[in-house]
Prior knowledge:
Elements: H1 2-19, E1 32-33, E2 37-39, E3 42-57, E4 60-64, E5 69-74, E6 81-82, E7 87-91, H2 94-130, H3 135-167, E8 170-172, E9 177-181, E10 189-190, E11 195-200, E12 205-212, E13 224-229, E14 234-243, E15 253-260, E16 271-287, E17 292-294, E18 297-303, E19 309-313, E20 315-320, E21 323-328, E22 335-337, E23 349-350
Parallel strand pairs: 1-23
Antiparallel strand pairs: 2-22, 3-12, 3-16, 4-11, 5-7, 5-10, 6-9, 7-8, 9-11, 12-15, 13-14, 13-16, 14-15, 16-21, 17-18, 18-19, 20-21
Helix pairs in contact: 2-3
Amino acid sequence: MVKRAGQAMMVLMLLAGCDRDPAGQNAPPPVEYQLPTLVARGEPLPIRYTTTGTVVSDERVEISSRISAYLSRLEVREGERVARGQRIAVLDSQSVTGAIRQAEANRDKAAAGFRDARKDLEDAETLFHKGVVSASALRKARLEQDVAAQELEAARAALVAARADLRYTEIRSPVAGVVVARPARSGDLVTPGSPIVTVESDTALLFETFIAESQLGNIRLGDSAEVRIDATDRTYAGEVVRLVSSGDPVTRRYQVKISLADSDGLLPGMFGRSAFTIGSRDSILVPDSALAERGGLTGVFVVEADGVLRFRWVRTGRNLADHTEITAGLEPEETLLTQVPAGVSDGDLLTGAP
């Protein structure tokens, strides 16, 4: 019983001791600093509209045949570079050479018919002058010669067309670039308009992106833009060269193509981000050295009228070179520290610039 009473007395003494301020627990005095300051100023800051997009070729050509024939040989593969005028495929020419022989035979036949008609006309003219044949017989002979001449001209034109088809059995690339698709295979029957090979030029490159409907009034042909490509980790200067005024009815977005002043290192299909300047707004920029982190929060030290330094939490925006935009927490004309040493705390004093 006595033991329990002693324990209770000790608890009461401890509680009583907690009510008294312990000696020597006063807050430390503020530290005085001599640090540079600046006055926050509002200045115009460009408003940027950003989108994502892809590098595309301005010359994407689907090469097809002009005649119907079997594909004998395909001489390129995906990823290969081709030169302008390089042969990329060969078609079976048997049907074409057969058509040429047939056209030659038709020409020879028409030429023989024309010679006969011309001889008949000459004979009819001689007999007409002698009074042996009538004028109607002479007109008929002349008509037959005209028809034979037209048939000969048609046969010659058919021969020219047949011989031209022989040239189309060799398919050549109209542009220099890289083969990106090869839908046809050797042995396939190709027809006019069906693609055999797709070639993309890697010299005429554009950046393709899509803008929201609300930005149509802010972006126009000739506007400048910046394009950031992730693969090259570079920013490229660009200009809006195409703006398709018909948008996607589902996404309500409109196609924009940007020409790039420098396409070094770029390839079709690379992902990137474009930035357009669509206006400006007044904003506060502070040097990065003025930002401090205290208690996991980013802020600045504002100098009050009596020289007391107060930590002010701020919301930051874009980072421009070595300056950061302050979007909330700081007003124009307020004075703040330009440089913040690690030891500066809320409540310290500023004695003046060094």
